[in-house]
């Protein structure tokens, strides 16, 4: 492999090929569940360099593991332990190429950090609505490769719906320029949708043309306390009926998830008394703050009258609104502070969620007395982060090691029984590859394998991920 690494250094420059201690930060995932050893970390500075790099890898039979901000949760962007896989960092490919305000599009390179994309849109008084807890470090390439969701899917859709065109380097080192800003284009198969969500296994996304939206004139945020998930689902229906597409966020958090935030981040205010479930709602309004406030107050009054909520707190300023969102976004960090846990990123029909949670909570508590359940997520689009924490006083690492297969089987059996999906927005990666093989439809899996074989016949792009 020395000849390959030397050729790589000649192509990119020695400063952009990392090994040893310099490569270590790239070799461990954010959750600290996967740690491998890369042959090297390569950091190309352009699409042309990346294409040449892929051709070099194909000639030497070197597998490539693409990595964006290394914020993934399913082990899809860390190398294996062999020391023979090249880790590809797109961090240097972070330019904003074009903002077309009239067409409401923004073309950026894959290494652009999500927050930088949001800020580029905001500078023109426009909105790029993809919003995630990791937006300060995750990248657009990773967002698209995993078809990320986030907090505003209810109104704007997943990353796939926010992308109009792509630039991709194929497994053969060819460049597909599909950076179209068109909203209507029926000229053949939709290759964009093929690469979005493929987790770097079919091609390497190098740039994207993204949808922008007019910035709302006002946004209102509130917390509402509910005595049951059934009430939260009914509140969602009422909010959709009253606000329509103005309802941009509808998050749900169980009591234990917020208790973890109180324990580990006591400085964060929680304006409502503890309740079984807490909903975070956000409305965006094109008419202005007065109209938004009146709509919000009417909605909450009707919810109180119908017994759907016990109490509510409306943010009176942008700072208070950020504080409410900070509560929600601090749940994963509080879980991390509490110790290793078993995570599930699942999707269900909204109507099935109350029954799923009641039945699965009861099954887990019967199987593992004292188990603690951290249920939160995007109720508006049916995406729950259904996480399982060790009983109080039990070693979290031991719990994860001994109980994960049992817990996963129980949870995923229930998900499938209720017509759901084992992955809503985090992807498959390494973590859920075997589950997909067991639970995926045989015809769908055969089609996926055929596509993989056709586009990556050497099997060099992110091998042993997804399939």
Automatic annotation (TrEMBL):
InterPro entries: FAD-bd_oxidored_4_C (IPR004113), FAD-bd_PCMH (IPR016166), FAD-bd_PCMH-like_sf (IPR036318), FAD-bd_PCMH_sub1 (IPR016167), FAD-bd_PCMH_sub2 (IPR016169), FAD-linked_Oxase-like_C (IPR016164), FAD-oxidored/transferase_4 (IPR051264), Oxid_FAD_bind_N (IPR006094)
UniProt key word Flavoprotein: yes
A GO molecular-function descriptor: FAD binding
UniProt cofactor(s): FAD
Keyword terms, alphabetized: FAD, Flavoprotein
Keyword Flavoprotein carried by entry: yes
Protein's name in the database: FAD/FMN-containing dehydrogenase
FAD-binding PCMH-type domain residues: 34-215
Entries under PANTHER family matching the protein: BLL6224 PROTEIN, D-2-HYDROXYGLUTARATE DEHYDROGENASE, MITOCHONDRIAL
GO BP terms in the entry: respiratory electron transport chain
Pfam families to which the protein is assigned, alphabetical: FAD-oxidase_C, FAD_binding_4
Family: Belongs to the FAD-binding oxidoreductase/transferase type 4 family.
